[in-house]
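Build the 3D complex.
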Amino acid sequence: MTDTTATGTTPGTTTGTTTGAGDHTADAAVITDMRPASPVVARTRDELSEARSALDDDDVAVVMTMGALHEGHATLIHQARKTHRHVVVTIFLNPLQFGPKEDLSRYPRTFDADLEICTAAGVDVVFAPTPDVIYPDGDPGVRVSAGPLGDVLEGQSRPGHFDGMLTVVGKLMHLTRCSAAYFGQKDAQQLLLIRRMCRDLDFPVRVVAVPTVREPDGLAMSSRNTYLTDSDRETALCLSAALRAGADAAPEGPSAVRRAARAVLVREPLALVDYLVLVHPDTLEDVPEWYRGEALLAVAGRVGTTRLIDNLPVLVGPGGGALETFSQP
Ligand code: AMP
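Done.
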């Protein structure tokens, strides 16, 4: 167990040196040390509470992660930083959202590197608890229910996943006392459900979506990409290529989108496609052929031992196409 004292330094100060505001006689260490201050690292509820209370403003945005941070996470942090006075990053591998046959035990754990990214991005507090801190009584008897939207797409392959995800997101919103929370479009169904939870259960939190960050070749960044072998990685490119091909066919209507995307996937037999859908972004129901407007083209599949997901918001109909550029870090 760690002790209950928050560790690290407060952004804006230098280790071992405190200078009052307006102190023009600051010593040389302060003047020359221009490195960003490390975030306060909180491991326990008390440490988080102390670190959170030390922030001088309630304009706090949270970025929730499972660690193994990459440019996608960093982009969420940068976006949050632009608009909010303080940013808290949570790093927590939530056992509640992993099924018994999923990758909880092999999920990459890279805390030191994660902390470097948080430091460079100017994060104020990193909350990195263990499961017993989040679930002191073990499995929580009461959970947030995702409802029917949690049973389709990812929910069909991962029963209970979204209940577990929403339960921890709700808890982390309470514990961090955030006013805003930033999530990636990469996990579109998760984002939709979090928006719904905040609306349906009156969480006073502004949910902000950030477009998917991709590798230069189109692969959506993911902590799970580290599982891919070189040849898996080549295979995995068919997912984003399919989305792009589907979006290019968007002016011709829904079946053209689905056909174009499927044509790319069938050329890659090593990708075991779980689903490829064109759905309404709010209901996740297949859009009918007459539909024109915003839709979500989403794909999931297994490449080697790794399950990958990707999606692209598209405008279906005349002048249509991808609503998200294939951004690069
Ligand atoms: P994770 O650590 O995978 O649970 O992701 C934490 C947050 O980062 C979630 O809101 C994800 O949607 C977001 N995220 C993960 N990968 C990306 C990406 N490539 N682009 C944008 N956001 C991402």
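The mean pLDDT is 91.
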